Structures are given as structure tokens and as C-alpha cells.
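Hi V.,

You were right to ask for the full record rather than a summary. Here it is.
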Amino acid sequence: MITRRTLLQSGSAALALVSAGRALAQEPAGEPIFLGVSGPLTGPNAQYGAQWKQGFDLALDQINGSGGIKGRPLRYIFEDTQSDPKQTVAVAQKFVADKRIVAELGDFSSPASMAASPIYQRAGLLQFGLTNSHPDFTKTGDFIWSNSVSQAEEQPLNAAFAVKRLGFKRIAILHLNTDWGRTSKDHFAAAAKELGAEIVATEGYLPEEKDFRSTLVRVRDANPNGLFLESYYADAALIARQARQTGLTVPIAAASSIYSPKFVELGGDAAEGVFTSSRFFPEDPRPEVQAFVSAFKAKYGKEPDAFNSYAYDTMILFGQVLRETPNLERKTIRDTLAKVRDVPSVVYGKATFDTQTRRVRGARSAELVVKGGRFTLWDGKATN
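Predicted structure:
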């Protein structure tokens, strides 16, 4: 875990990212190389798509400003799906038929992505999930890859944070009643029980729900000493507000999916004191993180968040893959992705894939709490 006293060194990766952020040359004038992006630009998850675009665009400034891909600029075509499985299937059919598309990134949610995975697998077009944490996401086939930490890995870490660090012994869980939410809840509950905690209430809710008060009354009456949310930032903010309104005053912790400035904005005073963990935090002292933060601030005038970093990392990764691939055949790009080693990464330090799971190894984690209207590193003081 990253704390205020942690100082991790990563010289070569940091130098690569720092040099990428320096003054950029004119972009190459060759025929563009296109990646397809499937994700939400409208609808309830639109903020995530906007965050992706910021990360992608910063990375493309750096890639194209330093010569592009063998003299060709790298571009992306972003199709808005609202992270709806029906729309991701239609976009997948469009992308596999478009011979300009050399690989696909997305979708945002695992269920939306997994609905389209068989289409990409059959067509032999690489589908790369940058936020797809469902353990089964990469199991469709050898063209399905991800640099997201799976819920099978993340939820035991969340359980250890809640039980061992925060002191949650009687836990109530609220979760999105989606495949992602149910899977996350199951992994969290199993790990928490192994650590000696009792799950006193489990409540699922639909993505479109807005009124959680009757659910929270049942949770309150189960007498938990901690509430854990398997939620996205918008629903988590509503739950936090309504929990306090129903007299549920126990500490709240949540999955890393709530880590967004929007959670604090929407949650208001009720967001104060909510805990989460994140694979990225802008105050992490690692040199590669600080280089990214500086470049992001210079372009956008604000600090990046985790979803900006996931998108940035992904585009930097594909820049490396496309430089190393001997040709732009879709299968060759997939094969090159399996071979790249130690790609500079904000989240991982250096990214290398496990070719069996088709995921990156070795994510780091920061323990966070909302304090003074912003996410801060948690000081380690017990809550109970």
C-alpha cells in the first residue's frame, strides 16, 4: 500500500514519461493508424468516457509529437455506446468490418464489453478492456486482453482494507445488481468472511434506481459497523447521502470504481469520510506518476484521476505495441502485445502481460479517504 512515507523508485519508466511530456514536435503527416474505442459519451456513465478521452488525447499528443508510429499519426474513432450491451454489439460489428481499425479499446463496463467479445474473437480483432475487471472478461478467447485488475484480485484487497485496516466486523454490502456488481460482491463477501467478518446484510439494486431509503432502513436495522459499496460514483453518492438521512452513521467504504471527483461533487457533505482504494492517486510520489500529473495539469489545468490514468496508460501501451509490431495485421498486433515487456506505466510502473490470463501483473494500490472535500491518502487511523 502507498502511504505518505512511501517513496518508490522507477527511474527508466519515469524518464520515458518525462521525456514524452516535453515540448512536442509537429505531428507526422502519414496515413493515420486507427484504434476503435467503444464507450459511454452519453447516458449515466458519460463522465467515464469523457475521462478516457482526456487520457487518450494526452497520450496521443506525446506519441504523435515524438514522431508517431513509424512516421504515421495514431488516432482513435470513439463510438458512443452508453455502455449498453445492445449498443456494444452493434459497434463491434461496425469495427470488425472497418479494415482501418487495428485494435479495439473498451467498453467501460464488463457486461457491456463481454456482450461484444464473441464478435471480436470470431473476427480476430483484438478487444482490449482498460476498465474490465470481471474475472471472466478475458476468458472468451485469445483476442481478449486487459490491463485492468480483475475483481478476483481486487475484492480480496478491498476486504482486507475493510476488515483488517478499517475494523469492519459486521458488514452490510450494497451492490449493483449487474454481473459486475454480483461478482464483485461475491468475491468481497467470501474474502471478508475468511478474515473473520460477518456479512449481516446484502442488498442489490438496479443501475437506474435513485431511492435507496427503504433498503438503507433494512441495512440500518441489521446493525452493521461498516457499509461497503460495490457501486459506481453516481449511485454511491446517492447512497451515501440517503444513508445519513436514514440515520445510518457507520463508516462507508467502496470499490475503486467510485474514485472520481464527481463522487465528491455529487455526494457533498455525505461523501466526507468515505473510504476507497485506487490503482492511481496523483499524490503518489513515484516519478512516473508525477511526470504524468505534471503533463496532465499542463494540458487540462487540473489533476488527473484514475480513469484518466487508465486511458493514458492504455494509449501509451498501444503506441509501444504498434512501434514494435512488424506489420499492422490484426493477428500480428495481438501477438506483439503478448511479447512487449516493461512498458512505462503510471499504474504498474512497468507493464508486462501474463499470457495465460491476458492481464498485466503487479498493480499498486493507495488507501484513500474523502477529507476536506477531496480524496486524500488515509492516515491509517482506525474508524471503530
